[in-house]
Design brief:
It contains 13 helices and 26 strands. By secondary structure, it is an alpha+beta fold. It folds into four domains: about 50 residues; about 80 residues, 2-Layer Sandwich (Alpha-Beta Plaits); about 325 residues, Peptidase S8/S53 domain (Rossmann fold, 3-Layer(aba) Sandwich); about 90 residues, Immunoglobulins (Immunoglobulin-like, Sandwich), CATH 2.60.40. The strands form seven sheets. The protein has a seven-stranded parallel sheet with strand order 8-9-7-11-13-14-15, sandwiched between helices. Strands 3-4-2-5 form a four-stranded antiparallel sheet. The relative contact order is 0.14.
Length: about 700
């Protein structure tokens, strides 16, 4: 038997204790009926990933006029901190990427970061880590798109939403991923009548001067074509990747898969249907071999949303929705939170996959303002591989195989566009039951597509409003099954608190509920209530609250109504109960709470509350809405390609091949089977290491 390292032995011992605990739990509760499921999703590498690149946040924008001056500033910091530094690039005026010239080890890297953080010019310093596609499934073709229909509990019922809107060609959805195959006939370039905008490649060169990660022979350029992200054994073990790869692997065509779920060309008698039919897809390449650097991802995010990026022409097609089917098991970093704050302030909606490690929601899905998507089985329970926790926003289908072992058909694959090449591209094709497609990476784009449908009918919604209405439009979590006993999902206590088996979702553990396309579109069609409150308040004196409203595309505001929710001493509504403006008396003590109800021409409503004390007034509602509710058609190359027409009659779902709900095994047999499979994988892994 190959020699096993001390590190691997430690891991095996730790996990053997986990299996012992699971077995003890079974003995304590007696015989339970649990569903066995084979989870083929690849997780992030098990090894320790280190990088000589770091991202620093400046406390103030450096007062430098040229790159040469910035180089001098970086050199000065290197002298002060005694850390050899080299400028690699800039993400934004307040974020720079540096290379540290030290022998690479965790202790050395931590020491260098501490020295940098102590410098008065630096707000924070953090490793320029790699992020990974959240699923690298097997490959091609399964044409039954159950997840878009309403035949399974967790399905999105997109066919019903399409009766209202299949999307607008004034909306852009960015896919930050491995790039895309422009030549796939179900995607295609926008200039040729397809769905894909030109996009950009932000995968930069590696610190050793090579373009191994990029795998296209160059660094950043205007071609986000995916050349493939296969990894050889020698590359995986090279010093460049330093534990960032989990062994050799075939090309994933991950970005092409994600793009197909959002917007495969629809109603064209070919291949599959995307959840949106008309919005444009903006491919932004940020991942290559063994994932990609944070700095490339962050730069791509800013560019995709229409922000200026040094050395790159401004994006002519700013995205309203960004999909990030990537991440790793860490907290939300300062750099990600800062960029996400920039994007959401511009009205961009950031959607990210929760991750496939069975633990807490990973980064950047766990950042504030991000729509974090948990993967669900067809019956609405959490898929074993999916992350979950308090940072989850909602759940969406992530694919599940139902079968109890490898080499069996995966009955609930998430079918989409892909390529058959194991290294470079070969035939453009689709996923199927044997070359299946599962993972939170494919839950996220389904929700990103729903967000695109929402903005298509009401483009004036802010990022926070889209998130809130996504949550409001969900279907509730299904009750626990009666034919078998399943654990209730819990909120993970930390990164080592894993739940690798199917569990029953709750709002605390998995988010608001199951994503529902018609529910979300209906919520988006509601008007937006606005309120302007006075800057000063005097107890016992009159003040005017100026209400307003903005209706969705094709609708208008028809009425306003003010009502008293609670009264303070001496306060109350004086006049204007049925008009936009209301006059009230400020209370002498306590809080007066008023509610404005705005109704549109279709009878849909929105509400906004105002709290008034003796000295102040406040409301969580927006003061005004300036953006148009109807998206403006985006012109490609002088004339917009003719969009695929939305159906004029209700869409008939394709016939479902069904598929069972999965067999059940005695828990002891399940533990033994799972333990045998796990030990075999562990020993194989140890031998490969």
């Amino acid at each position: 038997m190959p020699k096993i390292s001390a590190r691997c032995r430690t891991r095996l011992l730790r996990h053997s204790r986990l299996w012992a605990a699971l077995l003890a739990g079974w003995l304590a509760v007696g015989s339970l009926s649990m569903s066995a499921e084979y989870h083929p999703v690849l997780r992030e590498p098990r090894g320790e990933s280190l990088s000589v690149r770091v991202i620093i946040g400046w406390r103030e924008v450096p007062a430098v006029a040229t790159r040469e001056a910035l180089l001098e500033e970086v050199a000065s910091i290197g002298e002060r901190t005694r850390v050899p530094l080299q400028l690699v690039g800039e993400v934004s005026p307040t974020l720079s990427v540096l290379r540290v010239g030290i022998p690479l080890s965790r202790d050395n890297l931590e020491a260098a970061l501490e020295d940098l953080r102590a410098d008065p010019a630096i707000a924070f310093a953090e490793p320029d880590r790699r992020r990974y596609p959240h699923a690298l499934p097997n490959d091609p073709l399964f044409t039954n798109q159950w997840y878009l229909q309403a035949t399974q509990p967790s399905a999105l019922a997109a066919t019903t939403a399409w009766d209202t809107s299949a999307g607008s060609n004034g909306i852009v959805i960015a896919v930050l991923d491995t790039g895309v195959r422009f030549d796939h006939p179900d995607l295609g370039r926008a200039a040729d009548g397809g769905r894909l905008l030109p996009g950009y490649d932000f995968v930069s060169g590696d610190s050793n001067g090579s373009f191994t990660t990029a795998n296209d022979g160059n660094g950043r350029d205007a071609d986000p074509t995916d050349p493939g992200d296969w990894v050889t054994s020698s590359e995986a073990s090279s010093s460049l990747f330093s534990g960032a790869c989990d062994g050799a692997s075939d090309s994933s065509w991950h970005g092409t898969r994600v793009s197909g779920l959002i917007g495969a060309r629809s109603n064209n008698a070919l291949g599959v249907t995307g959840i949106t039919w008309t919005p444009w897809i903006l491919p932004v390449r940020v991942l290559g071999k063994c994932g990609g650097y944070d700095s490339d991802i962050l730069t791509g995010m800013r560019w995709a949303a229409g922000l200026e990026v040094s050395g790159v022409e401004l994006n002519p097609y700013p995205a309203r929705v960004l999909n990030l089917s990537l991440g790793s098991s860490e907290r939300c970093s300062n750099s990600y939170q800062g960029v996400i704050d920039e994007l959401t302030a511009r009205g961009a909606v950031v959607v990210a996959s929760a991750g496939n490690e069975s633990g807490p929601v990973s980064a950047p899905a766990n950042c504030n303002g991000v729509v974090a998507v948990v993967a669900l089985r067809h019956v609405g329970t959490k898929v074993g591989f999916s992350n979950l926790g308090s940072r989850a926003t909602l759940g969406a289908p992530g694919g599940n195989c139902v079968n109890e072992g490898a080499n069996q058909p995966c009955l609930f694959s998430i079918d989409t566009t892909t390529n058959s090449g194991r290294t470079g591209p070969l035939n453009n094709t689709y996923t199927d039951q044997f070359n299946y497609n599962v993972g939170t990476s494919f839950s996220a784009p389904l929700v990103a597509g729903i967000a695109g449908l929402m903005l298509s009918v009401n483009a004036s919604l802010s990022s926070a409003e889209v998130t809130a209405r996504l949550r409001a439009g969900v279907r509730p979590w299904p009750a626990a099954p009666t034919d078998r006993v399943l654990p209730v999902c819990r909120v993970p206590s930390g990164v080592n608190d894993l739940q690798p088996s199917e569990c029953v979702c709750t709002s605390a553990a998995c988010g608001a509920g199951m994503a529902n396309a018609p529910g979300a579109v209906s919520e988006a069609l509601r008007p937006i209530a606005t309120v302007v409150v006075p800057s000063s308040v005097t107890a016992g004196q009159n003040l005017v609250l100026q209400g307003g409203g903005a209706a969705a595309c094709g609708r208008s505001v028809s009425s306003y109504a003010w009502s008293v929710v609670s009264t303070g001493t001496g306060g109350g509504l004086v006049s204007g109960s049925n008009s936009a403006a209301a006059t009230v008396v400020a209370p002498s003590s306590g809080t007066l709470q008023l509610r404005l109800t705005v109704t549109d021409s279709s009878g849909a409503i929105d509400r906004a509350d105002v709290n008034i004390s003796a000295t102040s007034a406040s409301s969580a509602a927006r003061a005004s809405v300036t953006a148009s509710a109807c998206p403006t058609a985006i012109v490609i190359g002088g004339t917009p390609p003719a969009p695929t027409p939305a159906p004029t009659t209700p869409v008939t779902p394709p016939t479902s091949s069904g598929g069972g709900g999965g067999g059940s095994l005695d828990p002891l047999a399940l533990l033994l089977l799972g333990g045998f499979w796990w030990w075999r994988r562990r020993l194989q892994f140890a031998a490969e290491r």
